[in-house]
Amino acid sequence: MFCIGPHLSTTGGFLKMGQTAVEIGANTFQYFTRNPRGGRAKAIDPADAAALIALMEEEQFGPVMAHAPYTLNPCSDKPSVREFAMQTMADDLVRTEYLPGNFYNFHPGSHVGQGIEAGITLIAKQLNTLLTSDLTTTVLLETMTGKGSEIGGSFEELREICDRVSLADKLGICLDTCHIHDAGYDIVGDLDGVLTEFDRVIGLERLQAIHLNDSKNLRGAKKDRHAVIGGGELGLAALTRVINHPVLRVLPFFLETPNELPGYAEEIRLLRQLRV
Predict the structure, then answer these.
(1) Angle, helices 261-274/235-244, rounded to nearest 10 degrees
(2) How sure is the predictor about 221, in pLDDT bands with cuts at 50, 70 and 90?
């Protein structure tokens, strides 16, 4: 089953997001757990969550993805920022269990001058503190562009985090097509080679989801500026190869393109046409 969906606003609650996804032709979606710049999250209505679960079963949805706020930085040099990351992720992982068996995605963080080794150590420490054996949510590290002191711009950095987390079955990777292109991986000219490298370094069994985005930047720019599908440097042909690749086609795809709902609907319609 081809699972593809947009990034939706939580305004209106869980069921509303599911209904909106259906209306635009999606069978999954991504949402922020709270304001993407941080802050307190709204209380969850268990009945609303149950209604979404029923809708997802009825419409044969794939897994949905919760996304952590951008301000979550478990490897900051400031103890207060690390504590915010710890408390926020802890709260988020309680909240995601209202929709059991789905994904929670986060940007690994920026070491802000401490060095990659120190940053990876702090990220793994937070994950080892928070991941428990009874958690049904799979936590995903997102591939990043590597701009500034950002961690996760290389497969090796993500592998280092994974290797230091005790409950390996609770952790996976979300591959962002814009991000790895901006990080320097040639998914336009050598998608097979990139996936072979991913498998060698991390292992394809850890790859759980795809952020399907075009990029406004040339490969290796390390900037992170998303473009609409087919409207950037990756181009429609390359993204068509991504959604049809035998390794990737079984995964859920989440759009983070600069769109409103009509634009998402058009992208979903187009990508369904290009799926073979």
Answers:
(1) 70
(2) very high
